[in-house]
Protein backbone atom coordinates (compact mmCIF):
# COMPACT_ATOMS: atom_id res chain seq x y z
CA UNK A 1 0.00 0.00 0.00
CA UNK A 2 1.41 3.34 -1.04
CA UNK A 3 1.36 5.86 1.77
CA UNK A 4 -0.03 9.26 0.99
CA UNK A 5 2.14 12.22 1.95
CA UNK A 6 1.05 13.89 5.14
CA UNK A 7 -1.00 17.03 4.66
CA UNK A 8 0.67 20.26 5.59
CA UNK A 9 -0.73 22.04 8.67
CA UNK A 10 -2.27 24.67 6.39
CA UNK A 11 -3.96 22.03 4.21
CA UNK A 12 -5.15 20.07 7.22
CA UNK A 13 -6.74 22.99 9.02
CA UNK A 14 -8.29 24.89 6.11
CA UNK A 15 -11.35 22.63 5.56
CA UNK A 16 -11.86 22.38 9.30
CA UNK A 17 -11.77 26.14 9.70
CA UNK A 18 -14.33 26.58 6.92
CA UNK A 19 -16.64 23.94 8.37
CA UNK A 20 -16.03 25.24 11.87
CA UNK A 21 -17.17 28.72 10.84
CA UNK A 22 -20.24 27.47 8.96
CA UNK A 23 -22.05 26.22 12.06
CA UNK A 24 -21.84 29.43 14.12
CA UNK A 25 -22.60 31.52 11.03
CA UNK A 26 -25.73 29.53 10.18
CA UNK A 27 -26.90 29.39 13.79
CA UNK A 28 -26.38 33.15 14.23
CA UNK A 29 -28.36 33.87 11.06
CA UNK A 30 -31.27 31.70 12.21
CA UNK A 31 -31.32 33.32 15.66
CA UNK A 32 -31.24 36.83 14.15
CA UNK A 33 -34.09 36.11 11.72
CA UNK A 34 -36.26 34.45 14.37
CA UNK A 35 -35.61 37.27 16.86
CA UNK A 36 -36.34 39.99 14.29
CA UNK A 37 -39.59 38.36 13.15
CA UNK A 38 -40.64 37.46 16.68
CA UNK A 39 -40.19 41.02 17.93
CA UNK A 40 -42.00 42.36 14.87
CA UNK A 41 -45.15 40.34 15.51
CA UNK A 42 -44.96 40.91 19.27
CA UNK A 43 -44.82 44.68 18.71
CA UNK A 44 -44.94 47.24 21.52
CA UNK A 45 -42.20 47.16 24.15
CA UNK A 46 -40.64 43.95 22.80
CA UNK A 47 -40.16 45.43 19.34
CA UNK A 48 -38.79 48.72 20.68
CA UNK A 49 -36.41 46.95 23.08
CA UNK A 50 -35.09 44.67 20.33
CA UNK A 51 -34.23 47.56 18.02
CA UNK A 52 -32.92 49.68 20.89
CA UNK A 53 -30.45 46.89 21.67
CA UNK A 54 -29.40 46.84 18.01
CA UNK A 55 -29.03 50.64 17.92
CA UNK A 56 -26.94 50.74 21.12
CA UNK A 57 -24.68 47.99 19.74
CA UNK A 58 -24.23 49.95 16.51
CA UNK A 59 -23.45 53.09 18.51
CA UNK A 60 -20.82 51.19 20.51
CA UNK A 61 -19.24 49.79 17.36
CA UNK A 62 -19.20 53.21 15.67
CA UNK A 63 -17.60 54.98 18.65
CA UNK A 64 -15.09 52.17 19.04
CA UNK A 65 -14.21 52.46 15.36
CA UNK A 66 -13.85 56.24 15.19
CA UNK A 67 -12.13 56.71 18.55
CA UNK A 68 -11.42 60.15 19.98
CA UNK A 69 -11.55 61.88 23.37
CA UNK A 70 -14.31 61.74 26.01
CA UNK A 71 -14.86 58.02 25.52
CA UNK A 72 -17.18 57.53 28.52
CA UNK A 73 -19.33 60.51 27.55
CA UNK A 74 -19.55 59.26 23.99
CA UNK A 75 -20.38 55.68 24.90
CA UNK A 76 -22.62 56.06 27.94
CA UNK A 77 -24.07 59.48 27.20
CA UNK A 78 -24.77 58.53 23.60
CA UNK A 79 -26.31 55.22 24.65
CA UNK A 80 -28.58 56.95 27.16
CA UNK A 81 -29.63 59.48 24.53
CA UNK A 82 -30.54 56.71 22.09
CA UNK A 83 -32.55 54.96 24.84
CA UNK A 84 -34.51 58.18 25.46
CA UNK A 85 -35.13 58.53 21.72
CA UNK A 86 -36.45 54.97 21.60
CA UNK A 87 -38.69 55.62 24.60
CA UNK A 88 -40.18 58.76 23.08
CA UNK A 89 -40.71 56.97 19.77
CA UNK A 90 -42.44 54.08 21.57
CA UNK A 91 -44.82 56.61 23.13
CA UNK A 92 -45.55 58.15 19.73
CA UNK A 93 -43.66 61.40 20.41
CA UNK A 94 -41.75 61.23 17.13
CA UNK A 95 -41.10 64.96 16.74
CA UNK A 96 -39.63 65.15 20.24
CA UNK A 97 -37.53 62.04 19.60
CA UNK A 98 -36.11 63.51 16.39
CA UNK A 99 -35.36 66.86 18.01
CA UNK A 100 -33.65 65.13 20.94
CA UNK A 101 -31.57 62.99 18.58
CA UNK A 102 -30.48 65.95 16.46
CA UNK A 103 -29.81 68.10 19.52
CA UNK A 104 -27.73 65.39 21.16
CA UNK A 105 -25.59 64.85 18.07
CA UNK A 106 -25.00 68.59 17.63
CA UNK A 107 -24.21 69.00 21.34
CA UNK A 108 -21.56 66.27 21.19
CA UNK A 109 -19.97 67.87 18.13
CA UNK A 110 -19.83 71.23 19.92
CA UNK A 111 -18.61 69.74 23.21
CA UNK A 112 -15.75 67.75 21.76
CA UNK A 113 -12.63 68.96 20.04
CA UNK A 114 -10.41 67.29 17.50
CA UNK A 115 -10.74 65.67 14.12
CA UNK A 116 -13.12 62.90 15.20
CA UNK A 117 -15.87 65.01 16.76
CA UNK A 118 -18.12 65.14 13.68
CA UNK A 119 -17.69 61.41 13.08
CA UNK A 120 -18.48 60.72 16.75
CA UNK A 121 -21.60 62.88 16.60
CA UNK A 122 -22.65 61.23 13.34
CA UNK A 123 -22.58 57.85 15.07
CA UNK A 124 -25.22 58.93 17.57
CA UNK A 125 -27.52 60.10 14.78
CA UNK A 126 -26.81 57.00 12.65
CA UNK A 127 -27.72 54.57 15.43
CA UNK A 128 -30.62 56.62 16.78
CA UNK A 129 -32.15 57.03 13.31
CA UNK A 130 -32.47 53.25 13.05
CA UNK A 131 -34.61 52.75 16.14
CA UNK A 132 -36.65 55.90 15.48
CA UNK A 133 -37.41 54.86 11.88
CA UNK A 134 -38.43 51.27 12.60
CA UNK A 135 -40.57 52.11 15.65
CA UNK A 136 -42.27 54.89 13.67
CA UNK A 137 -43.12 52.46 10.86
CA UNK A 138 -44.15 49.55 13.11
CA UNK A 139 -46.51 51.77 15.12
CA UNK A 140 -48.40 52.81 11.99
CA UNK A 141 -52.16 52.43 12.47
CA UNK A 142 -52.32 50.62 9.13
CA UNK A 143 -49.74 48.39 7.44
CA UNK A 144 -47.17 48.73 10.23
CA UNK A 145 -46.13 45.07 10.24
CA UNK A 146 -46.17 45.02 6.44
CA UNK A 147 -43.80 47.96 6.19
CA UNK A 148 -41.14 46.15 8.27
CA UNK A 149 -41.70 42.82 6.50
CA UNK A 150 -41.27 44.64 3.17
CA UNK A 151 -38.00 46.16 4.40
CA UNK A 152 -36.75 42.72 5.48
CA UNK A 153 -37.63 41.29 2.06
CA UNK A 154 -35.99 44.15 0.17
CA UNK A 155 -32.77 44.26 2.18
CA UNK A 156 -32.28 40.53 2.74
CA UNK A 157 -33.23 39.70 -0.84
CA UNK A 158 -30.96 42.38 -2.28
CA UNK A 159 -28.02 41.38 -0.10
CA UNK A 160 -28.25 37.63 -0.75
CA UNK A 161 -28.95 37.81 -4.48
CA UNK A 162 -26.31 40.50 -5.05
CA UNK A 163 -23.75 38.08 -3.62
CA UNK A 164 -24.81 35.18 -5.85
CA UNK A 165 -25.37 37.38 -8.91
CA UNK A 166 -21.90 38.86 -8.61
CA UNK A 167 -20.28 35.46 -8.12
CA UNK A 168 -22.08 33.78 -11.02
CA UNK A 169 -21.97 36.63 -13.56
CA UNK A 170 -18.98 38.73 -12.52
CA UNK A 171 -18.01 41.66 -14.72
CA UNK A 172 -17.15 45.29 -13.95
CA UNK A 173 -16.69 46.29 -10.34
CA UNK A 174 -19.25 48.56 -8.71
CA UNK A 175 -16.88 50.55 -6.51
CA UNK A 176 -13.49 48.82 -6.38
CA UNK A 177 -11.79 51.38 -4.15
CA UNK A 178 -14.31 50.86 -1.37
CA UNK A 179 -15.58 47.30 -1.86
CA UNK A 180 -13.54 45.29 -4.40
CA UNK A 181 -15.90 42.29 -4.33
CA UNK A 182 -19.05 44.16 -5.43
CA UNK A 183 -19.98 44.10 -9.13
CA UNK A 184 -22.54 45.90 -11.26
CA UNK A 185 -24.06 42.54 -12.17
CA UNK A 186 -24.53 41.69 -8.51
CA UNK A 187 -26.02 45.13 -7.85
CA UNK A 188 -28.58 44.81 -10.68
CA UNK A 189 -29.50 41.21 -9.83
CA UNK A 190 -29.71 42.05 -6.13
CA UNK A 191 -32.01 45.08 -6.33
CA UNK A 192 -34.21 43.38 -8.96
CA UNK A 193 -34.71 40.26 -6.85
CA UNK A 194 -35.17 42.33 -3.70
CA UNK A 195 -37.89 44.43 -5.34
CA UNK A 196 -39.70 41.30 -6.58
CA UNK A 197 -39.44 39.64 -3.18
CA UNK A 198 -40.84 42.78 -1.55
CA UNK A 199 -43.75 42.69 -3.99
CA UNK A 200 -44.33 39.02 -3.13
CA UNK A 201 -44.43 39.76 0.60
CA UNK A 202 -47.03 42.49 0.09
CA UNK A 203 -49.11 40.11 -2.03
CA UNK A 204 -48.98 37.46 0.72
CA UNK A 205 -50.09 40.06 3.26
CA UNK A 206 -53.07 41.10 1.06
CA UNK A 207 -51.84 44.65 0.52
CA UNK A 208 -53.66 46.12 -2.52
CA UNK A 209 -51.10 45.60 -5.26
CA UNK A 210 -49.87 48.47 -7.36
CA UNK A 211 -46.99 46.73 -9.16
CA UNK A 212 -45.30 49.69 -10.87
CA UNK A 213 -45.01 51.99 -7.79
CA UNK A 214 -44.08 49.03 -5.56
CA UNK A 215 -41.39 47.78 -7.93
CA UNK A 216 -39.91 51.25 -8.44
CA UNK A 217 -39.92 51.89 -4.70
CA UNK A 218 -38.36 48.48 -4.09
CA UNK A 219 -35.61 49.12 -6.63
CA UNK A 220 -34.85 52.49 -5.05
CA UNK A 221 -34.82 51.05 -1.52
CA UNK A 222 -32.59 48.16 -2.62
CA UNK A 223 -30.17 50.56 -4.31
CA UNK A 224 -30.07 52.70 -1.17
CA UNK A 225 -29.44 49.58 0.93
CA UNK A 226 -26.45 48.77 -1.26
CA UNK A 227 -25.31 52.37 -0.78
CA UNK A 228 -25.55 51.88 2.98
CA UNK A 229 -23.39 48.79 2.66
CA UNK A 230 -20.80 50.73 0.67
CA UNK A 231 -20.83 53.52 3.26
CA UNK A 232 -20.01 51.07 6.03
CA UNK A 233 -17.25 49.55 3.87
CA UNK A 234 -15.86 53.05 3.44
CA UNK A 235 -15.93 53.54 7.22
CA UNK A 236 -14.08 50.29 7.87
CA UNK A 237 -11.45 51.09 5.26
CA UNK A 238 -11.01 54.59 6.65
CA UNK A 239 -10.33 53.21 10.11
CA UNK A 240 -8.50 50.04 9.03
CA UNK A 241 -11.00 47.50 10.34
CA UNK A 242 -12.21 44.25 8.78
CA UNK A 243 -15.40 43.98 10.86
CA UNK A 244 -17.18 46.56 12.98
CA UNK A 245 -16.92 44.10 15.91
CA UNK A 246 -17.25 40.40 16.72
CA UNK A 247 -20.56 40.59 18.51
CA UNK A 248 -22.28 38.14 16.12
CA UNK A 249 -20.45 34.80 15.70
CA UNK A 250 -19.51 34.25 12.07
CA UNK A 251 -20.98 37.57 10.92
CA UNK A 252 -18.87 40.31 12.47
CA UNK A 253 -20.70 43.23 14.04
CA UNK A 254 -24.24 44.53 14.17
CA UNK A 255 -23.29 47.36 11.81
CA UNK A 256 -22.08 44.75 9.32
CA UNK A 257 -25.55 43.18 9.32
CA UNK A 258 -27.71 46.31 9.41
CA UNK A 259 -25.82 48.90 7.33
CA UNK A 260 -28.11 48.52 4.33
CA UNK A 261 -31.23 48.12 6.47
CA UNK A 262 -30.62 51.46 8.20
CA UNK A 263 -30.53 53.33 4.89
CA UNK A 264 -33.66 51.61 3.56
CA UNK A 265 -35.56 52.05 6.85
CA UNK A 266 -34.85 55.78 7.00
CA UNK A 267 -36.01 56.13 3.38
CA UNK A 268 -39.25 54.24 4.12
CA UNK A 269 -39.88 56.33 7.25
CA UNK A 270 -39.37 59.60 5.36
CA UNK A 271 -41.72 58.58 2.54
CA UNK A 272 -44.28 57.26 5.01
CA UNK A 273 -44.15 60.44 7.08
CA UNK A 274 -44.44 62.72 4.07
CA UNK A 275 -47.37 60.87 2.52
CA UNK A 276 -49.14 59.27 5.49
CA UNK A 277 -48.27 61.51 8.42
CA UNK A 278 -47.35 60.33 11.93
CA UNK A 279 -50.48 58.19 12.36
CA UNK A 280 -50.30 56.01 9.24
CA UNK A 281 -46.84 56.02 7.61
CA UNK A 282 -47.54 52.48 6.38
CA UNK A 283 -50.42 53.80 4.29
CA UNK A 284 -48.19 56.58 2.98
CA UNK A 285 -45.59 54.03 1.97
CA UNK A 286 -47.90 51.63 0.13
CA UNK A 287 -51.12 53.39 -0.92
CA UNK A 288 -50.32 55.37 -4.08
State the main characteristics.
288 residues, 2 domains, 77% helix, mainly alpha, two-stranded antiparallel sheet, disordered N terminus, globular
Give me the secondary-structure topology.
Blueprint: H1 9-42, H2 44-66, H3 71-90, H4 94-111, H5 117-138, H6 144-169, E1 173-175, E2 179-183, H7 184-204, H8 211-238, H9 254-276, H10 281-286
Antiparallel strand pairs: 1-2
Q: Explain this structure to me?
A:
With 288 residues, the protein is mostly helical. It has two domains: 28-139, no CATH class; 143-288, no CATH class. The protein is 77% helix and 3% strand. It has helices at residues 9-42, 44-66, 71-90, 94-111, 117-138, 144-169, 184-204, 211-238, 254-276, 281-286, and strands spanning 173-175, 179-183. Strands 1-2 form a two-stranded antiparallel ribbon. Strand 1 (173-175) and strand 2 form a beta hairpin. It is globular, with a radius of gyration of 21 Å. The N and C termini lie far apart (75 Å).
What's this, in brief?
The chain has ten helices and two strands; from the N terminus they run ααααααββαααα.
